[in-house]
Amino acid sequence: MLRKALAKQGVHGMVSLRDAFDAYDTDDSGDLDFEEFAAALMQYKLTSSEIRSLFMRFDQDGNGQIEYDEFVEGIRGELTPKRRTIISNVFGEYS
Ligand SMILES: [Ca+2]
Ligand SMILES: [Ca+2]
Question: pTM of the full predicted structure?
Answer without folding.
Answer: 0.67
